[in-house]
Amino acid sequence: xxxxxxxxxxxxxxxxxxxxxxxxxxxxxxxxxxxxxxxxxxxxxxxxxxxxxxxxxxxxxxxxxxxxxxxxxxxxxxxxxxxxxxxxxxxxxxxxxxxxxxxxxxxxxxxxxxxxxxxxxxxxxxxxxxxxxxxxxxxxxxxxxxxxxxxxxxxxxxxxxxxxxxxxxxxxxxxxxxxxxxxxxxxxxxxxxxxxxxxxxxxxxxxxxxxxxxxxxxxxxxxxxxxxxxxxxxxxxxxxxxxxxxxxxxxxxxxxxxxxxxxxxxxxxxxxxxxxxxxxxxxxxxxxxxxxxxxxxxxx
Length: 300
Known about the structure:
This protein is an alpha+beta fold. The protein is built from seven helices and eleven strands. It folds into two domains: about 5-25 and about 65-150 and about 275-290, CATH 3.30.1330; about 150-270, CATH 3.30.1330.
């Protein structure tokens, strides 16, 4: 297969997968919502969960996005330095976003800053966002896709704490955000917390936390304990599904961290709504692909 044919095939696969992920929730998100619905005791909350499941059924049946806000498209790449299309990949993903916008269809969500016009294509300066990690001595490529909604993921928050505030300060930062903003982000939420040495590092860690499988834990036992404590704390607020009260406010809390400078603790919070439209697809050096997030996806 010639390189232009390889590019065309990968573009088409990514476009179709991106459109599919806007209509069908990832397997782990669907399973978690079903688990939370079974635990719910309040009648209104149970009705809301039933409506969520009906929404998902109709999205599949009618072949339409499950939420009107199909977000700003984001890609997180862990790409091998020897992946055959590494040089073409960023432009390829832009074209896949344009194709998905037309075919899925996706709402036009790219507005050029200062010029204040909607491109009508879901692409613009720096949109879609493509975040890179290069993996040495590898010919494969892992691609995480995400529809970052205007009510949940895009309004994240980050700050730098003085070291004396400690992890209690981190907890207060997270809880202040969840009590003041969480009700607006379409709970139950997946909460990503990044802790590190600067705002940009913490913010990227919080974003990466949203791509972890629901139910996974930070490998550091202290961080894993903090995940559970924050989950209990946020659930105790009682936001419930769609912020109308209930047993569970979150699908989980994921913490990702780096080392930090001794004089600061940077912390960031990023949240995914109940319609957490992430995707995960893995390519090998022969351009064979495997979808890890959606077991029912079929490329035709």
